[in-house]
Amino acid sequence: MAGGEENSDGGKTDFHVLVVDDSTVVRMVHRMLMTSLGWKVQEAKNGKEAVDLHINGAYFDLIFMDMEMPIMNGPTATRELRAMGVKSNIIGVTSCTFESAHKDFIEAGLNHCVSKPLTIAMISSFLPDSNNK
Amino acid sequence: MDLLSQLRGQIADFSAFLHREGFVDDQFTQLQKLRDESSPGFVVEVVSLFFEDCEKLVNNMAKALEQQIVDFKQVDSHVHQLKGSSSSIGAARIHNVCIAFKTCCEDQNRDGCVRCLQQVNHECIQLKNNLQTLFKLEQQIIAAGGSIPAMQ
């Protein structure tokens, strides 16, 4: 499921991404941005859904995790995923501008933390170099 | 000037107006660029969803602010949601009001929150009307046999 071939415009054709956000609008926008790069996108409405997907055996090359969500928030979900041994790149995505909030989120186990809105340039920067899987 | 050129000119002018007046920002342009044959209605769909969400959040915030004891954390949580979704679709004015609104919530300033809520409502209505105008122009271009001009 991980890795895959590159298509002619540099996007990955078998790159699986999980978008975790409680906002339907945000999930829809992020899905569109990522599918335009040729990525395969799955969605989760909160941290618990994200964790449950992994418990059921799902694997993702990249996870975009919102910070504030009902039921299970981003930091808690990130901690749980890392405790389960999930090694995927997890990118925190937040509307919160406080540096302290970013710091706490990163300490939960993120690889990076970015502010909304996500852009194509931002998303593309998280694509790993080809042939490293 | 033929009809298509006229319509293209109108769309270009109207889009410039929306950006100049701060109704939308580059994020909106990015979304418009994502429109293609496989998802021609994407922008209309996500904008429509945004306004449905907006209406629900505004109603929830209004109810929360009418309470004798205002739960500012709850109001803040609704503002936070609107802030995130508005920035994701490029609704710049709404996003900016949300920033001020969050400050009022943090200060537990009820009057400030009520004013911000009125402003959010006003901006939502304005943006909805403006985008309906834009989408109508786009439909007219398609009906006239043309294609929607690429966004700059």
UniProtKB/TrEMBL annotation, chain A:
The keyword Ligase does not apply. Residues 16-131 form the Response regulatory domain. It comes from Salix koriyanagi. SUPFAM superfamilies: CheY-like. This is TWO-COMPONENT RESPONSE REGULATOR. Signal peptide: none annotated. Gene3D superfamilies: 3.40.50.2300. The keyword rRNA-binding does not apply. One of its GO terms (biological process) is phosphorelay signal transduction system. The modification 4-aspartylphosphate is found at residue 66. Keywords: Phosphoprotein.
UniProtKB/TrEMBL annotation, chain B:
The modification Phosphohistidine is found at residue 80. The keyword Disulfide bond does not apply. Residues 39-134 form the HPt domain. Keywords: Acetylation, Cytokinin signaling pathway, Cytoplasm, Nucleus, Phosphoprotein, Two-component regulatory system. PROSITE patterns: HPT (PS50894). One of its GO terms (cellular component) is cytosol. It holds the Pfam family Hpt. GO terms for biological process: cytokinin-activated signaling pathway; phosphorelay signal transduction system. It is found in: Cytoplasm, Cytosol; Nucleus. GO terms for molecular function: histidine phosphotransfer kinase activity; protein histidine kinase binding. InterPro entries: AHP1-5/YPD1, HPT_dom_sf, Sig_transdc_His_kin_Hpt_dom. It comes from the Eukaryota. Histidine-containing phosphotransfer domain (HPt) contains an active histidine that mediates the phosphotransfer. This is Histidine-containing phosphotransfer protein. It comes from Salix koriyanagi. The lineage of its organism: Eukaryota, Viridiplantae, Streptophyta, Embryophyta, Tracheophyta.
